[in-house]
Specification:
It is built from eight helices and four strands; from the N terminus they run H-H-E-H-E-H-H-E-H-H-E-H. With 205 residues, it is of the alpha/beta class. 48% of the residues lie in helices and 9% in strands.
Length: 205
């Protein structure tokens, strides 16, 4: 549903769903909460209503969210920039067959192969490039943001390939040099300045 225009669900809701799954898998209460998330999004989708009232910019956030700063509400309120997908909120969870212990262990292993970085870093560069192209087609982003975490050396190594793909799709992209936890690399005000300048430079604001 997050692929729809306007986006009927907040990326924060999807992040919460992922955290609930990690911390309380199997809980009936969490299952019910996730169902309510889904039903609320479906109601907005049927009315062609976005989660945020004024969706001006669709952002594809290529990486995990920055943990020391909650940037998504700021982006929405300041620019109407709605993040339609990131590395955590759209983690695909394969079906877990509960027939036996063997099938559960097998399928839970498959679940972990689909986590944020794991699904891209266990093979050739095509695991990254094919996912990028698919997301650009499915989510109709106006721009992309690459956060460039220090620990994600594989991401930095693929920068030139990523830029080539983005250019072929004519989608503006911002490459930050931030870190998920460490503010010494780039703190919150610096990230906000980079994002503001990027939107201004490309005529989004």
């Amino acid at each position: 549903m997050a692929r729809a225009k306007p986006c009927p669900v907040s990326i924060e809701t999807l992040l919460l769903a992922w955290m609930f799954k990690i911390t309380g898998i199997g809980s009936p209460l969490i299952t019910q909460t996730i169902k309510e998330f889904c039903e609320n999004a479906r109601k907005r989708l049927k009315k062609s209503k976005g989660y945020y009232p004024k969706e001006n910019i669709r952002v594809l956030w290529w990486d995990v969210p920055i943990a020391f700063a909650n940037l998504f509400p700021w982006l929405e309120k300041k620019f109407g920039a709605v993040t339609v997908a990131d590395f955590i909120g759209r983690v695909y969870t394969p079906y877990v067959d509960t027939t036996s212990e063997e099938t559960m262990v097998r399928d839970l292993s498959r679940v972990h192969l689909h986590v944020a970085m794991g699904r891209n870093t266990r093979g050739p560069s095509e695991l990254v490039t094919q996912e990028m192209e698919r997301l650009m087609e499915q989510y109709s982003p106006d721009c992309m943001v690459f956060t460039g975490h220090n620990g994600c050396k594989h991401g930095s190594a693929l920068s030139r390939i990523k830029k080539h793909i983005i250019k072929s799709h004519n989608i503006p992209a911002l490459f930050l040099s931030s870190d998920i936890f460490d503010t010494r690399t780039m703190n919150e005000p610096a990230i906000q300045r980079e994002l503001t300048d990027f939107f201004y430079m490309h005529g989004f604001i």
